[in-house]
Amino acid sequence: MAHPIDALALAQDLIRCPSVTPADAGALGVLEGALKPHGFTCERMPFSEAGTPDIDNLYARIGTTGPLLCFAGHTDVVPPGDTKAWSVDPFSAAIEDGFLVGRGAADMKSAIAAFAAAAADFAPRLNGRGSIGLIITGDEEGISINGTVKMMQALKDRGEQVSHCVVGEPTSQRRLGDTLKIGRRGSCTGRLRVLGAQGHVAYPHKADNPIPKLVAILAALTGRRLDQGTPHFEPSNLEVTTVDVGNTATNVIPAEARAVFNIRHNDLQTSADLERWARSVCDAVIAAQGGAYELEWTTGGDC
Q1: CA–CA separation, 62 vs 43, rounded Å?
Q2: Are 72 and 183 in contact (CB under 8 A)?
Q3: Beta 68-74 vs 164-167: how paired, if at all?
Q4: What predicted TM-score, i.e. pTM, was given to this entire model?
Q5: 252-262, pLDDT tens digit by residue?
Q6: Which of 76, 139, 208, 302 is catalytic?
Q7: Whole-number pLDDT of residue 142
Q8: Active site residue 76
């Protein structure tokens, strides 16, 4: 008989895998190794699409009958940033003052470890009355193209119907379990490039500085309140995540300036409508100030 899964130990093992999107870094293998001894059938589900990183995903199930209760989550994490700013190595999974510290401790390797421990503990009591599954993806923190959507379509195509699903995203506000989400917001990303003409700062009339135009576009984008929210979703919001010029000289006007922004939106908005609005903002600024721009738009799905 397999030993019970220690949720804390499993969470630490998962955190020690530096699975920054799109890298897996062994995280799915760690989870698979924990579930198999408890009778779970584990299946890797890799997906690809042109222009996107290949992503490996894991589907684990015990039981063959319905209803099928699934736990959904992701093992990929966002970059840790400046590791020197951390109190510990972000991938050491250290415990400080009773807290597990590490990239993914909150979002959401600890939840996956809790899923696995609970599912393995309850599995012997199924007795043919339904099934338990885990749907674990590897690209939630990225553009989310080769993960959940394709996994769910693959399961549907072969006749596996998920009756209920619990997602382990960290939604609590003040205490554990005080907030339940019944859906997810949409996500879209704009990669903006404003084009100008390089020149010397002493002769600005011979150059075309793209930075003021980029600033004007970002001010217009962030200055609009998209909506007031709905009973089930928070207000849609646009956040600028990076602004880049790459100019190391103080006396040179650069040829281009770039920025990236992300919009998390509720069911009052669609990615297509938001893209049209963002392009109209860019068009208006460029029409007024001259120059040119390029906007690459990607979406991880609507609300």
Answers
A1: 12
A2: no
A3: parallel
A4: 0.80
A5: 999 999 999 99
A6: 76
A7: 81
A8: yes
Cross-strand pairs, 142: none
And the tokens for 221?
A: 């984008």
Instruction: Report the pLDDT value the prediction gives residue 172, as an integer from 0 to 100.
Output: 82
Residue 294: partners with Cβ closer than 8 Å, 6 or more residues away: 192, 193, 195
Return the percent helix, strand and coil in the chain, to nearest 5. Answer: 30, 25, 45
Active site residue 178: no
Give the chain's end-to-end CA distance (angstroms, integer).
Answer: 43
What mean pLDDT is reported for the chain?
A: 94
Geometric angle at alpha carbon 177, from 173 and 183, rounded to 5°: 80
Give the pLDDT of residue 257: 97
CB-based contacts of 287, cutoff 8 Å, min separation 6? none
Which residues, including other chains, have CB under 8 Å from residue 189's CB and lie 6 or more apart? 143, 260, 261, 262, 263, 297, 298, 299, 300
218, 243 contact by CB (below 8 A) = yes
Catalytic pick among 24, 139, 140, 208: 140
Mean pLDDT in residue range 130-153: 91
Reading the block at residue 136, the tokens are 């674990």
**15-65, pLDDT tens digit by residue?**
999 999 999 999 999 999 999 999 999 999 999 988 889 999 999 999 999
Rounded distance, CA 103 to CA 110, Å? 10
Taking the C-alpha atoms of residue 3 and residue 288, their distance in angstroms, rounded to an integer, is: 68
Interstrand relation of 94-96 and 131-137 (parallel, antiparallel or unpaired)? unpaired
pLDDT value of position 173: 82
Q: Which of 115, 67, 117, 88 is nearest to 16 (CA)?
A: 88
181 neighbors 87 (Cβ within 8 angstroms): no
Q: How far apart are CA 261 and CA 273, in angstroms?
A: 16
Please name which of 85, 104, 83 lies closest in space to residue 93, comparing C-alpha atoms.
104
